[in-house]
## 1
Amino acid sequence: METALDQVFSALADPTRRRILGMLLEDDMAVTDVAEPFEMSLAAISKHLTILTRAGLITQEKRGRVKWCKLEPLAMREAVVWIESFGELEPLNYDAFEQFLQNELKTPAEAEDGS
Amino acid sequence: METALDQVFSALADPTRRRILGMLLEDDMAVTDVAEPFEMSLAAISKHLTILTRAGLITQEKRGRVKWCKLEPLAMREAVVWIESFGELEPLNYDAFEQFLQNELKTPAEAEDGS
DNA sequence: TCAATCGTCAACCATATGGTTGAATATGGA
DNA sequence: TCCATATTCAACCATATGGTTGACGATTGA
């Protein structure tokens, strides 16, 4: 079984996908616009976007005939946390971790004071 | 051309290699000893170690007939820096994260019932 | 000296990955 | 309605990846 971490790291291992993430930092984008600066087919970019979506690094929402891509930096932070503390995290419960991150992002103040 | 970042991220994308890195956190190890807990051939582990070496995540030094593997955590820094360059990444709430970790590190049963 | 140990190499295999092209499926707008 | 636009699908291709086995070279130690 492929873990979330596997998917995040292998998604980040491709320069095209990292460049796409960098573009999405500016703003949400339509698939066609994401593909525009690349010298490869739209279908190829579409596949890259699927990989980024499965890794949780972006989400895609279809409005009309346009599918908008949005950066989801949460997924990357999981990777950073692993790198920064991979020794201690050995038997990490990823479900609980995900919940922790979700909670923290949703209500930072509440998460801080534990209420 | 494969960048350093490509190599680090794709090296980290494999669970066997992440586990090896975790083992090397404890201490330097001989190739044979690295391979021991895995249910795969020594040759397979040797290949994984080559990949980790090319990514700069470990170094290998041969003393006598034993080749010692040493963790090189600085190589991961480049990856962290790339990820953190994403401005939208809110700084992690380390206090809350610490609490989460403490809870995680208890036995699974304890963590489950929250005691 | 000579067998045992350490680790890699070479050949091979199955599957994954990253790309292509052309057809198909919405949806929007005139 | 009908065409253009947005995106994916399907088939295909070349190469990469992660594993195997068996042979091999280097080194140790009895």
## 2
Amino acid sequence: MLVERTQNPTHGDYSVTLPLKLARTLRRPPITIANELAAAMALPPSFGRTTVAAPGFINVTLEPAWLQAQLASIADAAERWGRSEIGRGVKVQVEFVSANPTGPLLFSHARGAVVGDVTARILAASGFDVQREYYVNDRGRQIRLLGESIQARMIDRPVPEGGYSGDYIAEIATEATARAISPEPVTLSEFGVEWVQRRIQEDLARLDVRHDQLFLESSLYAGWDQETMAKLASLGRVAQHDGATWFKSDSGKDEVIIKRDGYPTYFWSDVLYHRDKFEKRGFDRVVDVWGADHQGQIGRVREALGVLGIDPQRLAVLLVQLVSVKRGEETVRMSRRAGVGISLKEMLDEVGPDAVRYFFLLRSADAQMEFDVDLARRQSSENPVYYAQYAHARLANVLTFGAGVSAQPALGRLDSEWELELMRVMLRWPDVVREAAEAREPHRLAFFTDELAAAIHRFYKNCRVVTEDAPLTAARLLLSRAAKTTIGNALGLMGVAAPDRM
RNA sequence: GUCCCCGUAGCUCAGCCUGGAUAGAGCACUGGCCUCCGGAGCCAGGAGCACAGGUUCAAAUCCUGUCGGGGACACCA
């Protein structure tokens, strides 16, 4: 039997629509079924009141006393409030960012970084054994081009066709010269990848994004490639023609895995990499956070996994859609392919990490979005980040203000619409975390946080906390403590600061 | 041509997976609220499910089609 939340508070807290659905099969009026079912549920009266509404809803309204009784345990649970163990014993990897180390991160990469990071935080809070990984393409044509581009800069030659020419190339060249690095493309590639990787980690650190492991693509080619190739061949899935090696697909459209020039394709690396994740490292589940432009890759990788005897359902791909940036009247579309756009560093300098994170989380990952820079950088009420942070700071302030009060809290007197509403909202928190984990939808946290902040501000406005009335003051302080815990945990899971003062 | 995402208020977006009872928020706009814990706040106001069919007692939500925006369909990465 499905119990859902009501959409309209006047109907109570929970509702059951089962009678409506059963009416046809039972061939009885839904209202009759509802009455019988409601009687059979027999909820303890201290928990809630059950009513039946036409044409066949069963509604449950929580008792104020039950709501009030939850406050102490919320406040005491502190950072544990909202955590669960639904993922206990499940090993899951979240792979995200994984931008090529051929240049500093662009703002468009940041969306994947935030979505991946918060997804990992949510899964960890839900008891999953989470590993966060960054896949580094440290070989291949782009990497050779990076080395050649640095070399060109060092010995003052034109940048090679399709090479890199940003300011950072000059910086790397200067540093390489200063350190007397030999101007060979291979050496410079290595030096450049390291330099860029360091720079990427700096940017990510400012966003408070960390990985447990950097996984090098090159490590896949120390035998694992041959082993996998042999396995595929034994399954009759490898073909040679047109000078290349192909994966034989059920779709009839074969995929190149080794090019005519002898180099492997990205597809082949992806196959090796994902087989490594499941087979070698034993992840039960893998979440890949990819840019929308990699959408075409999903089907092929899934098929190859299936062929190799790995259930493709264990791989979930979170496609993060494109971001455009709006500055004043101007809108810039960020394109990864074109390689042009605003750098992450620039945006961090301009709007700060909290706004970057919160704004990305206010959109579901699979929707294209527009990032309004002017709004994000505004240090005022229009900015949703401050709205949430201010709610936290207000509670911190009132708790300090009332710190001296000691009395037995009169919980039963927390019965105004604002107090009850605040309790109802914050009691949803564990469900929000669980649902966000199951659906892998980090944006749910931001929407919840916004609602919670609104409830906090309304409570604060309408219910003066610290007064001469000590028992009531004690009760409202407890409510404040529980609410501060909840919004603090929500901001924490999003990686957004929860300041006590602003 | 095939596949994927999107189309909800003037603008930016939730809600759709798992169909229910008056469809939400922020920004913008208009008008109110500071004797008292922080006004980065609160209260009030208008306006919307792209279109057309279908399924259902019930459709923003599921199915089909059309239109519109974006992305993907390489021996690129």
